[in-house]
Write a sequence for this structure.
């Protein structure tokens, strides 16, 4: 027990310990402070208050008259108001909030007159939508990646050449080229051909997101194959012998005996792989998928709040990866109790 | 019941070892055969060939008339009839005692839940470990683990039981409890092939003792004749060493 305590705990003097902690906090403030100071020095205007609207904003709605006519009736409808407008373009009823107009019954209207203007419902902003796309893509790619990895890992340890060599080829080919290049190939080569074939058969095109998910799944799957293989090989051969000698088939042995045990060794490197996956999904902006990074870039072109939005973007990635690693740690602790 | 005809087995990795050289034998139904011999003499390899955990290079093994090295044979059906117990227990650590005994009944025998439960509890009762049904293997003593392993093998209702040094990894005070289970099994008429150096066990229940050395069967006979009056010098030397 004593050998395991960290250096900080070994500071037996409680005052020294407190000092050490204070030192850490001071260091943190020093770093943040100097970054802030540097931005002030180059005259950067921090406008954090502008940021929330990239998550949620209220849509402004303006309704216009369509022709010459008059306000026929104004009638209450629950907490809103129905305005019936009769014009030469036809009659129309507008249902609007109470204080959003300035008319009385009988007023004349001309085309283009504002009937009412008000704030509509809350809408997700560009960053929120980007975040959602990143989560969706990462989640789906994780599922497909695990699937590919398990199938490939089982194939990798089999004695059948067609399975084993296919798995080796898959792993080596995918691990030997940059993810960005693979994304391009999936989108521009595979995507173009597949969409053309789909069109020729009268099926609508696939959204770029799907090609992005394919590229990420195939990429992650190759790494998961190796993780699964290492996990399988870490299981004592006596386990296989016990299972096979009782008459279980190779696959029953694999799925009921080997893989459940391998899971414990597989879990930590697997988590690392999926944390990478979340971060790698930022490359999908290159094929016009509006995930978090691309959404941030677009947000910046309209707002020019470069510093805030990039920092925010990083924090959002950090939140996702941190949550994931917490979940995995929890799972690890649960499987370790047996 | 088992007919072994002139089998050979050579390992080439890490270096060439002739593990079995022209081994033949015939094991009758209901017979209890004990295999002894020095370390590396091929006892385990012989036993593992009987259910094709190892494949012989030459020769033939017939189990109930079925040639187990024939590629057309469904080895899983043959194996289901042969229980195996290992020196290192090899219980499934991710399953409870109950799960260990139940799993193959479900996957291989395709028994229904009620039938499985009854069988499992009956067997755990039999090996004297019913109270630990919900325990994890890692929380059991070696002797208890080995008894669970025997129950797991018996759960398939095998016609033959193979034991590979079931007591050599156990503390001395636990050997007895495992041997008792094996003796009871032998007295019920189970066909058994046991690699073991427990002479008391051999004398009490074995019908035949086989002595192996350097991959060959050197001598075999009834326990009385074998232990009191061995005919080969190598047998005499070996018995002197273990006694
Ligand atoms: N899988 C294997 N690969 C290579 N050599 C092996 C393998 N299994 C056994 N051998 C070798 O074959 C010979 C016979 O081994 P075997 O395990 O059958 O002996 P044993 O009589 O059971 O010995 P022990 O009493 O130590 O268990 C030994 O020399 C051993 O090193
Ligand atoms: Mg052995």
């Amino acid at each position: 027990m004593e050998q395991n305590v960290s250096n900080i705990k070994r500071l037996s003097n409680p005052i020294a310990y407190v000092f050490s902690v204070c030192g850490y906090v001071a260091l943190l403030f020093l770093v943040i402070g100097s970054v802030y100071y540097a931005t002030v020095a180059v005259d950067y205007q921090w406008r954090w208050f502008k940021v929330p609207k990239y998550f949620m904003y209220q849509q402004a709605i303006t309704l216009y008259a369509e022709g010459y006519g008059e306000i026929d009736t104004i009638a209450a409808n629950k907490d809103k108001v129905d305005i019936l407008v009769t014009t030469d373009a036809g009659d129309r009823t507008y249902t609007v909030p109470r204080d959003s107009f300035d008319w009385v019954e009988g007023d004349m209207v001309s085309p283009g007159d504002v009937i009412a203007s008000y704030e509509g419902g809350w809408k997700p902003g560009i960053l929120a939508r980007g975040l959602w796309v990143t989560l969706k893509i990462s989640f789906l790619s994780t599922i497909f990646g695990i699937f590919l990895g398990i199938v490939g890992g089982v194939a990798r340890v089999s004695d059948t050449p067609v399975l084993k060599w296919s798995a080796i080829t898959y792993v080596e080919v995918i691990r030997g080229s940059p993810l960005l290049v693979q994304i391009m190939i999936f989108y521009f080569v595979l995507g173009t051909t597949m969409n053309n074939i789909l069109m020729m058969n009268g099926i609508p095109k696939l959204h770029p997101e799907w090609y992005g998910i394919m590229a990420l799944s195939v990429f992650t799957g190759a790494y998961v194959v190796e993780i699964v293989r290492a996990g399988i090989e870490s299981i004592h051969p006596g386990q296989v012998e016990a299972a096979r000698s009782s008459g279980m088939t190779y696959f029953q042995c694999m799925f009921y005996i080997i893989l459940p045990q391998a899971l414990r060794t597989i879990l930590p490197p697997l988590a690392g792989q999926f944390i990478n996956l979340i971060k790698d999904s930022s490359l999908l902006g290159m094929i016009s998928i509006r995930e978090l990074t691309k959404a941030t870039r677009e947000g910046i072109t309209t707002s020019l709040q470069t510093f805030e939005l990039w920092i925010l973007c990083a924090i959002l990635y950090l939140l996702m990866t941190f949550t994931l690693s917490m979940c995995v740690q929890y799972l690890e602790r649960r499987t370790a109790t047996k | 019941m088992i007919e072994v005809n002139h089998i050979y087995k050579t390992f080439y990795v890490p270096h060439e070892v002739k593990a079995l050289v022209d081994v033949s034998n015939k094991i009758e139904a209901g017979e209890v055969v004990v295999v002894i011999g020095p370390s590396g003499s091929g006892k385990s390899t012989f036993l593992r060939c009987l259910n094709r955990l190892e494949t012989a290079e030459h020769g033939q093994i017939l189990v109930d008339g079925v040639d187990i090295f024939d590629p057309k044979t469904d080895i899983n059906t043959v194996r289901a009839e042969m229980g195996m117990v290992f020196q290192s227990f090899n219980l499934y650590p991710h399953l409870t005692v109950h799960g260990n005994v139940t799993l193959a009944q479900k996957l291989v025998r395709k028994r229904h839940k009620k039938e499985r439960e009854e069988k499992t509890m009956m067997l755990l009762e039999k090996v004297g470990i019913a109270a630990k049904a919900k325990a994890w293997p890692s929380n059991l003593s070696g002797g208890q683990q080995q008894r669970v392993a025997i129950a797991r093998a018996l759960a398939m209702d095998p016609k033959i039981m193979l034991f590979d040094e079931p007591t050599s990894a156990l503390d001395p005070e636990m050997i007895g409890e495992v041997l008792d289970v094996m003796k009871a099994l032998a007295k019920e008429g189970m066909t058994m092939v046991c690699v073991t150096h427990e002479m008391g066990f051999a004398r009490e229940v074995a019908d035949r003792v086989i002595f192996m050395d350097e991959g060959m069967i050197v001598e075999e006979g009834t326990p009385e004749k074998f232990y009191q009056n061995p005919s080969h010098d190598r047998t005499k030397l070996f018995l002197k060493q273990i006694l």
In short: Chain A is about 60% helix and 15% strand. The beta strands of chain A are 56-64, 69-77, 80-87, 90-97, 108-109, 114-124. The two ends of chain A are 22 Å apart (CA to CA). Residues 55 and 125 of chain A are 4 Å apart (CA to CA).
